[in-house]
Amino acid sequence: MRLNRRGILICFIGIDGSGKTTISKLVNSNLTNRGLNSTYMHLRFVSIVLKLIIKLKNSFLIKEESPQENAYRSLMFKKVLLKNRLISYFHEWFVLLGHCFQIFYKIYSPLYRHKSIVLCDRYIYDTIVDLTIDHSWTRMKALRMLEISFRILPRPDLLFIIDIPENIAFSRKRDIPSIGFLSIRRVLYLTLFREYGPIVLNGLDSLTNLNKSIIQKLLRRLNC
């Protein structure tokens, strides 16, 4: 097993409700039971900008809302704000760089100091998908911004996309604005990162099979 200058970085990405958290935690538990130095990291990023948007939106809201209604109104409110070119410009860079530094800060110690197998529940790819939709980026710009991110962040050794039909993912989550919100993101996950060699897993498969498949690929990577 070779863990040279750093540990092994494994990333799980995909639409909300695809099962990333459940699967990555299960794999982490199994690796730990095998005696391997494994660390789970939840890397969902909520920027200060988004928190401010939600706070402003809530200040104009009187009635109680369901999580889905709240998510929808927050999304619409953000779209209105991002129509301003100056706000849009600062938003995309603030979110991108803010997430990059947050990720690096969280994974530096386990990945470089302790040389762990780091299992990331979300990574910079998820932020790129969100920004691509928020700012109507072309594929070329999205990939360019991803490469800028990798000047700060380590590239994953294994990248898994957990794919699942959007209607099923929508039924699992109460705070998703709409099925359309998931549909456009699912397409981007499956098409935007092709050259990064993602391994697409069927999120409808059993947890046992998914866990077995992921661990087999990881063990082959460790013994290469």
Spell out the key features of this protein:
alpha/beta, Rossmann fold, 12% strand, 224 residues, five-stranded parallel beta sheet, single chain
Total helical segments: 9
Beta-strand percent range: 5-15%
Largest sheet: 5 strands, parallel
Fold-level CATH name: Rossmann fold
Helicity, in percent? 55-70%
Written description of the protein model:
The protein is 57% helix and 12% strand. With 224 residues, it is an alpha/beta fold. The protein has one domain (8-45, 85-222): P-loop containing nucleotide triphosphate hydrolases (Rossmann fold), CATH 3.40.50.300. Strands 2-3-1-4-5 form a five-stranded parallel beta sheet, sandwiched between helices. The longest helix has 29 residues, at 85-113. It is globular, with a radius of gyration of 18 Å. It starts with 7 loop residues before the first strand and ends with a helix.
Topology:
Elements: E1 8-13, H1 20-33, E2 38-42, H2 48-59, H3 67-81, H4 85-113, E3 117-121, H5 124-134, H6 139-149, E4 158-163, H7 166-172, H8 179-191, E5 199-202, H9 207-222
Parallel strand pairs: 1-3, 1-4, 2-3, 4-5
Helix pairs in contact: 1-9, 2-3, 4-5, 5-6, 5-8, 7-8
